[in-house]
Specification:
The chain has 672 residues and is an alpha+beta fold. Among the domains are: 140 residues, Glutathione S-transferase Yfyf (Class Pi), Chain A, domain 2 (Up-down Bundle); 65 residues, no CATH class; 163 residues, Neurolysin, domain 3. 56% of the residues lie in helices and 7% in strands. α1 packs parallel to α3 and α17 packs across α23.
Length: 672
């Protein structure tokens, strides 16, 4: 049997092959289309059981199968899989676009909303129907036939362009390497990073040390390499990826203009003035102007701190490390030197205290304490032998959810860290379907039989992704469309993930997840106090950087003047808000996959928007004890459990008892 057609349990990753993709997609699409046609039969009054449920069943199977293919495309890419993925992507996109325009379905959902049976639906089901009606309008269901056809063509083109954008970025990242043969050129770089670089060179049959643009290789060079020209070489390669400076076949510049043009055309077809308005329709924020006002206010509060950060860094760089003309490739290096000088510790020193087994045990302990759960290793077929699998149960042993953990970087895996859903909780005839999530990071794999070691920033990222995972796994909603992360407003979806980050700054949490790689000793309280003192080191600079990206994204989709390029726009915005102006050859837009390939278009502001919510939510834990099970259960029941079954602002107010305020965020960032 085709493993992509087996929905009886967990995905059969060990058996999935590229040749399974097309037959599975063809069979599932045929079943979906047949179900749709059956459900729109005239003369039958739509009910949940006879209309919504059968379509949910059919579409869930397609979503689960294609989700496995998409996941493998992200974590175990190969030429054969990529070919199968790209061959089927237009068909999948066309199906969903057609679904969003289907007049018969639109009529049936409107009839269900206006029927006597609507009142008997539960609140989650009502929300699903309302979301569907909104999404039909956004999917072009009300357009004339000719415009519908064009709208569908645009959706297919956009899907293909986004996939190409991400593939180009992966290929360009993989294509670059820099081999250093002289050990003296590597002064300052930590020994474990050099071991990894030497091993990479050996595998290529070369002498010396091989460095790449993957984060575990790139970041330590930027942060620690004393040889300035080495930092500049890697920096230039990194910021010119997928641009005219490299392989022209991988240049994302034409893709950006095509994507923006098509998004604008789609928005105009739907009757909106711009794509930003379309993007905000299902979000918490109501208008682009409201978002820009929020970003401007935050920027004004952060700017003085950012300017102070930069003045201090320039002075230190000039006096202490002899770099008088501080450049973009010096920032991470000079910042690390300044932090060590001011707080007497380095990232590398701290990293020795965070071995993977201890970190995972400590993170799980937080969740077990505040929510009353148990997290245990389990077994499942996986896509790589380094992937781990866990199950979450309650005190009675009832299974709540399961998750895969794929922690390490490899050439076949896209960069960054992310969570995705494999299976969503819902009620079926045979009982509750257990939710399953994927958690993915790009950390340095273990070397020489020792466990992997994480920087504190990597620990924070892991907590962040686990927060997303818990949002999906701890839902109590039993209707697919708003269960877990489904139906949650995009600018609220970061609330649970950013909330989890706060625990990485609590001594009672951190001390239990540390053990020195060599001595086995716990992180000293004196070192933790230094980390805490350094927590908001350069937070002004970091905040304005996020605001720079958010303003760029919003203006790009809201009011980009005709003829102005994305590169010209980002350069203008930098002049207004940035305290670090990169060199002219920097091509940041070309690798900004969040907005061109990752669903964040006109939504990048949501990181800061949700940070306001998460900081304010965490403040209630600070007021009542950070590992307080009573507050933990309230957070679970009012926010995590609710999924998308009610507006996020209602969930927040139910938990906090009031509207959110910006004060806790500014306090957490040392900018109160």
């Amino acid at each position: 049997m085709n493993p992509l057609l087996d929905f009886s349990g967990l995905p059969r990753f060990a058996e999935i092959r590229p040749e399974h993709v097309t037959p599975a997609v063809d069979e599932l699409l045929a079943a979906c289309r047949q179900t749709v046609e059956h459900c729109v039969t005239e003369g039958v009054e739509p009910t949940w059981a006879d209309f919504v449920a059968p379509m949910e069943d059919a579409n869930e199977k397609l979503s689960r199968a294609w989700g496995q293919v998409s996941h493998l495309h992200s974590v175990m890419d190969s030429p054969e899989l990529r070919e199968a993925y790209n061959a089927n992507l237009p068909t999948i996109t066309e199906y969903y676009a057609a679904l969003g325009q289907h007049e018969g379905l639109f009529r049936k959902f409107k009839a269900l909303k206006n029927s006597t049976s609507f009142a008997s639906l539960n609140s989650a089901q009502k929300k699903i129907v309302e979301n569907e009606l909104r999404d039909f309008k956004l999917g072009g269901a009300e357009l004339p036939e000719a415009e519908k056809k064009r709208f569908m063509e645009i959706q297919q083109e956009l899907a293909a362009l986004s996939a190409k954008f991400e593939e180009n970025l992966l290929d360009a990242t993989n294509a670059f390497s820099h081999v250093v043969e002289n050990r003296d050129d590597l002064t300052g770089i930590p020994e474990d990073v050099l071991e990894m670089a030497a091993e990479a060179a050996r595998m290529d049959g070369k002498a010396g040390w091989k460095f790449t643009l993957h984060m575990p290789s790139y970041l330590p060079v930027m942060q620690y390499a004393e040889k300035r020209s080495l930092r500049e070489t890697l920096y230039r390669a990194y910021v010119t990826r997928v641009s005219e400076f490299g392989d022209t076949k991988l240049d994302n510049t034409p893709l950006i203009s095509q994507i923006l043009k098509l998004r604008d055309e789609a928005a105009k077809l739907l009757g909106f003035d711009n794509y930003a308005e379309v993007s905000l329709e299902p979000k918490m924020a109501e208008t682009p102007a409201q978002v820009l006002e929020f970003l401007t206010e935050l920027g004004q509060r952060a700017r003085p701190y950012a300017e102070n950060d930069m003045v201090e860094l320039r002075e230190f760089s000039s006096k202490e490390i002899g770099v008088k003309d501080l450049q973009a490739w010096d920032i991470a290096y000079a910042s690390e030197k300044l932090r060590v000088a001011r707080y007497s510790f380095s990232d590398h020193e701290v990293k020795q205290y965070f071995p993977e087994p201890q970190v995972l045990a400590g993170m799980f302990k937080v969740v077990e304490t505040i929510y009353g759960l148990h997290i245990r290793p389990s077994s499942a077929p996986t896509w790589h032998d380094s992937v781990k699998f866990f199950e979450i149960t309650d005190h009675g042993g009832q299974k709540i959810g399961e998750f895969y953990l794929d922690l390490y970087a490899r050439p076949s895996k896209r960069g960054g860290a992310w969570m995705d859903d494999a299976i969503t909780r819902r009620r079926k005839d045979q009982g509750i379907q257990t939710p399953v999530a994927y958690l993915n990071c790009n950390y340095t794999a273990p070397l020489g039989g020792k466990p992997a070691l994480f920087t504190h920033d990597e620990v924070i990222t892991l907590f962040h992704e686990f927060g997303h995972g818990l949002h999906h796994l701890l839902t109590r909603i039993e209707d697919l469309g708003v269960s877990g992360i489904n139906g949650v407003e995009w600018d609220a979806v970061e609330l649970p993930s950013q909330f989890m980050e706060n625990f990485c700054w609590e001594w009672d949490v951190v001390r239990h997840m540390t053990r020195h790689a060599d001595t086995g000793e716990q992180l000293p309280k004196s070192l933790f106090d230094k980390m805490l003192a350094a927590k908001n080191f350069q937070s002004g600079m970091q905040t304005v950087r996020q605001i720079e990206f958010s303003l760029f994204d919003m203006h790009l989709h809201f009011d980009l003047p005709p003829g102005k390029t994305a590169l010209q726009l980002i350069n203008e915005i930098r002049q207004q808000v940035a305290v670090i102006i990169p060199p002219d050859y920097n091509r940041f837009p070309n690798n900004f996959s969040h907005i061109f390939a990752g669903g964040y278009a006109a939504g990048y502001y949501s990181y800061k928007w949700a940070e306001v919510l998460s900081a304010d939510a965490y403040a209630l834990f600070e007021e009542n004890g950070v590992l307080n099970p009573e507050i933990g259960h309230r957070f679970w029941s009012e926010i995590l459990a609710q999924g998308g079954a009610r507006p996020a602002i209602e969930s927040f107010k139910a938990f906090r008892g009031r509207e959110p305020t910006i004060d806790a965020l500014l306090r957490h960032n040392g900018m109160a």
